[in-house]
Amino acid sequence: MRLLVTRPEPDASREAEALGRRGHEAVLAPLLTIEFCGGVPLQLDGAQGLAVTSRNALRALAAHRELGQALPLPLFAVGEATARQAQELGFADVTIGPGTGAELAALISDELKPKRGPLVHLAGETLAFDLKSALESQGFTVRQPVLYRAVPAPSLPAEALSLLKAGKLDGVILMSPRTARTLADLLARHGLVTQAKSLVCYCLSEAVAEAVAPLGFDVRVAARPREEDVLALVDSEAASS
């Protein structure tokens, strides 16, 4: 299958390699560019732990002057991939979440007590889930330093446009609601909504699927919000076609 890979770099190239190993052809079209916000204080004083819902936050943290102060703290990661990156960065006390922000909030509420101190959510400028509000409703104090922003692409890459116009793409992989909304905006801007309706959208979660639903595309949602499950979905579709 020939698939449009839309996540930001460096994850786009890594995902393309994974697709290649499975016998698929990836067409790179990163729809967001990650920009780190330098010099933002982490607000670690008195914190009992960290919460991370994106590997981009950890990439920003890797170059942060307060990394050394952050590493001894317990870290709650949204899922397995984020947890692995945290461990590679040097965190020793890492709790792996079930895969979504809502589930991570529930896990933190079960594991920690509000009276033990604030939590620090290392965040992006735009969030798919409001972890801060979810935890504050349980009595926690949550600090939320913004370490990165995702900037939407102004257009689709030339190769992707050519293949879309020619009807030579089988599907698109969408890993976040923001990416799905950006794709919808760009297809409308390029006048390609009708041509793109032949694509199957392989979505990380129901939230992602909802973001692209207004376009009326054929949508598939992974069994769990993990990249491995999205790729397994692609494999299953290829095998049955």
How would you characterize this protein structure?
- The protein is of the alpha/beta class and 241 residues long.
- It contains eleven helices and twelve strands.
- It has helices spanning 11-21, 55-62, 67-70, 80-89, 101-111, 131-136, 158-166, 177-189, 193-196, 206-212, 227-240; strands spanning 2-5, 25-28, 32-36, 49-52, 75-77, 94-96, 119-124, 142-143, 146-152, 171-174, 200-203, 218-221.
- Strand 1, helix 1 and strand 2 (25-28) form a beta-alpha-beta unit.
Features:
alpha/beta; 11 helices; 12 strands
Helix and strand run: EHEEEHHEHEHEHEEHEHHEHEH
Distance between the termini: 10 Å
Number of strands: 12
The major pleated sheet works out as: 7 strands, mixed
* Overall helicity: 40-55%
* Average of pLDDT: 95
Give a concise summary.
The chain is α/β, with parallel strands linked by helices.
Which secondary structure elements does this structure contain, and how are they paired or packed?
Elements: E1 2-5, H1 11-21, E2 25-28, E3 32-36, E4 49-52, H2 55-62, H3 67-70, E5 75-77, H4 80-89, E6 94-96, H5 101-111, E7 119-124, H6 131-136, E8 142-143, E9 146-152, H7 158-166, E10 171-174, H8 177-189, H9 193-196, E11 200-203, H10 206-212, E12 218-221, H11 227-240
Parallel strand pairs: 1-2, 1-10, 4-5, 4-7, 5-6, 7-8, 7-9, 10-11, 11-12
Antiparallel strand pairs: 3-9
